[in-house]
């Protein structure tokens, strides 16, 4: 025991003294001339051990990351050991619960997106209905014949935009009087087109009128004489396809 202490302790102290703080051990000093061979050998062994990576001190700037890495490694190890001790059926229950939770989140996301899209659609329909209501204001107090006569006067006067509105309203009121549709102010143009599904000829002509009307009134495009002539021709075809009774 005395032999080991005499051999190991001096070498350990010398190695620690010659090691630079924050880095690997510094080169050992040359042994004294009268130093025993066993001391030189012990010093070499200790220096070799202390030069291993696990005995090196981390630099000052890297101590935080070194400790963080050790903490994370310990945490993940503890989680892994805990998971290994969980019974198989419990693990399956957790997996199924996570899958169901993910599906619920996706379903909620799709519902929210659908609600946003539907909300924009309803606002667009409401805006169109409001615009259409402003166009209908005052027109429904006249019958289709009066509106048609007024539309022809507007065409001759060159008031294309007003003529488009009068021609379209004249067509709607005529279709209502003919019994092809049941006109209500709350109905959209698409609703009226759907009601004409059993009258394909009238539906086609009314679709032509609707295209020009919506482009002018809702789309803000300027009306033209050519559009008014096209609408007049479509309305004449529509009116000639059936003679409504006045009852």
Task: Outline the secondary-structure elements.
Blueprint: H1 2-17, H2 37-50, H3 63-84, H4 88-136, H5 144-157, H6 160-178, H7 189-195, H8 200-217, H9 225-240
> Which regions are unreliable across 5 or more consecutive residues at pLDDT < 50?
1-26, 130-134
Pattern of helices and strands: HHHHHHHHH
Regarding quaternary structure, what we see is single chain
The helix tally amounts to: 9
CATH class of the largest domain, named: Mainly Alpha
Query: What is the overall silhouette?
Result: rod-shaped
Helix fraction, binned, reads: over 70%
Please explain how this structure is put together:
With about 250 residues, the protein is mainly alpha-helical. Helix 1 crosses helix 2. The longest helix is centred in the middle third of the chain and has 49 residues.
What's the short version?
The chain is mainly alpha-helical and 247 residues long. The chain has helices at 2-17, 37-50, 63-84, 88-136, 144-157, 160-178, 189-195, 200-217, 225-240.
List descriptors.
247 residues, mainly alpha, Four Helix Bundle (Hemerythrin (Met), subunit A), 3 domains, 71% helix, rod-shaped
């Amino acid at each position: 025991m005395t032999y080991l202490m005499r051999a190991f302790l001096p070498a350990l102290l010398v190695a620690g003294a010659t090691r630079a703080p924050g880095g690997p051990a510094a080169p050992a000093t040359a042994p004294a001339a009268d130093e025993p061979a066993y001391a030189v050998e012990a010093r070499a062994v200790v220096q070799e051990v202390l030069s291993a990576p696990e005995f090196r001190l981390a630099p000052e700037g890297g101590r935080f990351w070194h400790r963080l890495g050790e903490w994370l490694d310990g945490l993940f190890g503890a989680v892994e050991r805990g998971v290994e001790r969980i019974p198989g059926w419990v693990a399956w229950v957790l997996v199924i619960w996570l899958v169901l939770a993910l599906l619920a989140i996706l379903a909620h996301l799709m519902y929210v997106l659908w609600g946003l899209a539907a909300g924009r659609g309803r606002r667009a329909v409401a805006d169109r209905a409001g615009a259409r209501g402003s166009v209908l204001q005052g027109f429904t107090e006249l019958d289709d014949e009066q509106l048609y006569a007024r539309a022809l006067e507007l065409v001759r006067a060159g008031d294309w935009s007003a003529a488009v509105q009068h021609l379209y309203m004249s067509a709607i009121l005529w279709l209502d009087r003919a019994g092809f549709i049941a006109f209500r102010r709350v109905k959209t143009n698409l609703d009226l087109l759907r009601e004409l599904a059993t009258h394909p000829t009238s539906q086609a002509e009314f679709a032509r009128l609707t295209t020009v009307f919506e482009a002018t009134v809702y789309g803000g495009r300027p009306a033209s004489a050519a559009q008014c002539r096209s609408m007049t021709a479509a309305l004449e075809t529509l009116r000639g396809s059936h003679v409504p009774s006045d009852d």
